[in-house]
Design a protein that fits this description.
Layout: E1 4-7, E2 14-15, H1 17-30, H2 40-46, H3 51-58, H4 64-84, E3 88-89, H5 93-101, E4 106-110, H6 116-124, E5 132-135, H7 136-139, H8 143-153, E6 159-163, H9 166-175, E7 179-182, E8 194-196, H10 201-208
Parallel strand pairs: 1-4, 1-6, 4-5, 6-7, 7-8
Antiparallel strand pairs: 2-3
Helix pairs in contact: 1-2, 1-4, 8-9
Amino acid sequence: MTDSLIFDVDGTIWDTTPVVAKAWNAALDECGLSYAHVDAARLKGLFGLPMDDIIADILPSEPLSVRGRFKTLCYKNEHEYLEKEPGVLYPEIKEVFKKLSEVLPVFIISNCQSGYIELLLKKTEMGPYVTDFSCYGDKGLLKAENIRLMVQKHSLKHPYYVGDTQMDANACKEAGVPIIYASYGFGKVEKPDAVIQNPIDLLTFIQRN
């Protein structure tokens, strides 16, 4: 039986891409890089990668010093913008978290920056439903290793990871954890272990697995 669920953030719990696009474009303007403006659609294809990889994709010809300044401004602007205009939760996800947390531990693991998961939990008031979380920004470890560490830390026997991209699936394969593909999210997953069309489908999944 499934004894825990580990969630991705962007494309699985909420969508912040329209807000983040505004925050990052403001950072690009401040750095004199307006030519590289991004939109929500492009960010949906990049989210899930570590921040340095995302910036390398956006600014492939810029030196590391410029990328570093942009990265710092991205973090600052993103936090400020999301404080004022949070991301949009996927339908019924908060109620799903509440019900899941009543029967098994719920975790969050992402390749995001430090403070991002905390902001999510603060703005959505979902903190009471999450047992633990980890991210790339906190430990400098990619998703697969953070999944492994979370499994070890909490002695999980039959966890599933809920994610929406092939990058999530690859990390799960490396970590030895099956993936539930959130097909309502940003990307595609080849040969997932299970598929949900909406967050609420997870309630049926755990009853059957």
